[in-house]
Amino acid sequence: MTRTNSCNFLVDFTGTKHWETLVRKDEETSFCRLTGFVHGVTGSRQADGLRFLVYGPRADIVFASIQKGSRCYVMSHVQVRTDTRNNVYTEFVIEDIQYISGCDLEAGEAVRRKLVEAGILKPSPHDPEYQKQEEKDSNYDPQQI
Fold this sequence. Notes:
By secondary structure, the chain is α+β, with helices and mostly antiparallel strands. It has a single domain, classed as CATH 2.40.50.140. The chain contains three helices and five strands. It has a five-stranded mixed barrel. Helix 1 packs antiparallel against helix 2. The protein is globular, with a radius of gyration of 19 Å.
């Protein structure tokens, strides 16, 4: 992640979300677009209608987890894009997200587990499969070679 294009926000998502599969370089990838706002503070107004994008397996998890009223801490970078009608969009591409409140964590976890079972993601250290592998690896005895 570049330090010259790094944006961090505490975002309240408004519930407008879109998911689809994109084809890039002959490969399919998940894509999710969400809208939200950032509260204002002294000297700065509230920012409404911000567009947040997520690509890849994270898009599947985020789409399942976020619902109207979800609050998250988002680490992202900004991109400016022009569509085929010459509309210009400023969007924030989510690189990492921390769920704070109002999120459906169970739905996101179910999607993550499906992605692990499909071999798309590696298991988390909290997953039983990972812990079994660690136990097996920790039984290594160099004298038995």
